[in-house]
Specification:
CATH architecture: Alpha-Beta Complex
CATH class: Alpha Beta
CATH superfamily: Ribosomal protein L13
Structural class: alpha/beta
Strand content: 5-15%
Number of helices: 6
Shape: globular
Strand order of the largest sheet: 1-2-4
CATH topology: Ribosomal Protein L13p, Chain: A
Radius of gyration: 16 Å
């Protein structure tokens, strides 16, 4: 297990605001497997294409999956937006191998932009206006709310 670097400058920062989560995930997974440290900020503003009802039903099925013999061995899907993004990116990594575990440990996901990353240079990822790109889409924050997560102040 590798230590987290104290130097924030080692992180490549990705702003997920208005970007498609699948595109972000594939690019971030590639950078992580190359040995780079990646931080995703504004994770709750990333979008998923498709109708809200189909996206909600897909993730509700995942939330309700249970093994009959021992329900504690069932897969866990988080409801909080930053943890949901992290779990989705984990699916793009070979997380069961040592190389994939090390890559997954180098990933940080934040709901908003922390003070350490306010002045950091953002990694350029192609973004388009989602209203022009897709007829239906939802943000990760809306999906989290649909799954039952309530943000506590």
């Amino acid at each position: 297990m590798k230590a987290i670097p104290d130097d924030i400058k080692k992180y490549e920062v990705v702003d997920a605001k208005g970007a498609v989560l699948g595109r972000i995930g594939s690019i971030v997974a590639k950078h992580l497997l190359q040995g780079k440290y990646v931080a995703i900020v504004n994770a709750d503003s990333a979008i998923i294409s498709g109708s809200k009802s189909s996206i909600k039903s897909k993730y509700m099925i995942r939330l309700n999956l249970q093994e009959k013999e021992n329900p504690e061995h069932s897969p866990y899907w988080p409801r909080r937006s930053d943890m949901l993004v992290k779990r989705i990116i984990r699916g793009m990594l070979p997380y069961r191998s040592a190389h994939g575990k090390d890559a997954y440990e180098r990933l940080r996901v934040y709901i908003s932009t922390p003070d350490e990353f306010k002045d950091a240079k953002m990694l350029e990822i192609e973004k388009k206006d989602p209203s022009r790109m897709y007829s239906n889409y939802t943000t990760i924050a809306e999906l989290s709310k649909l799954l039952g997560y309530e943000k506590k102040m």
